[in-house]
Amino acid sequence: MRSYWLAMLPLLLAVLTGCEREPVAAGEAEAMRAIRFNARPELSSAVTRAGEDVPDASDYLFTNGNQIGVFATWVSDEHVSTDVFSKIPVTYDDGDWLYSPLKYWRRGGKYHFRAVFPFGVNTQYGTDGTRLVASYSMFADNYDLMVAGYERDMAGDDTSPVPLVFKHACAAVRVVFRKGSEDENRHYLLNSCQMKYLRSMGVLVYDQDDVTLDSWQSAEFRSPSVLAWSAGSESQYIDVPASYTDFKQVNAHGWNQWHFVIPQNLNEDDGNHPALEFSMHVRQYHDDGVTLSYQTDEPVYTTLRLPETYTENDQTKDFCWEPGKTYTYYVQIQAGQASINVKVVDWDAYYVYVDDLIF
To answer: What does CATH list as the number for 35-170+349-358?
Structure first.
């Protein structure tokens, strides 16, 4: 009898074990290993912190139909690399990022991810999960270029969603004007504005944790005209207000409040100094506010060199446009002169939190 019960013991243990947990279906097990990504951004952005000193919040990144491009590379334990994603479009849809067909985590090795927004960014040959290469032209492009990177060692077989932190790869620049005169009958009518001698074409190489000035390789040529605006007709002139705040509300035809620019050093020593050039008509009215007493027949042009150095801790340093920062140039104009100052504000990194998203 004793030998009989001993013989039955393995069978009983198997039955008891089966009662504790039902086996996972093959399809469910596969779904659990699907590569997933986060779904929701951190909604508290730099706009809340810095107010009007930064462009609109990046929650437009999470607008239905918007796409990010994702690259991923898996490196085996034997150091053999395999591309998993090659700029696959991933579309935002009511809180989910969707793509097809699904990819699944491999066991062992290490994953490298790179992501870019917007999807239409001109990524170059050599881009994979470890290194993102993208070209940008200030003549043709004006968008908030954002990138993200992440690595995961699969030694622990972690299949949790992949967290991404999107970083601003460009700097954001704008120019605001005000008139120095409090005379309501004196009007400065802006009819053109441009920047000069800037490096306007470049390539971003994102292969480190952060995006820095050194991440950009810009062409040596510096354009004599970039970020240009001009009024198509007199009706499109911008009547410069007495306050910077009022100018920030300007909605003139073709006028961009913000320009997304290639990060670069502004302290050039070849004689072609980065500058702001603008033109305007000046009109002076009588007290009735209707009858002209004076006006310029031709537009008056003014060129102001952009600040090239700044002082910190009693040390003079080169001024540069850095990734992830915004630069507002404040220009005050009055009879016979103009002045320029710049305010620098940290932009923000927009965090995409892990959630139930099938990527």
So the answer is: 2.60.40
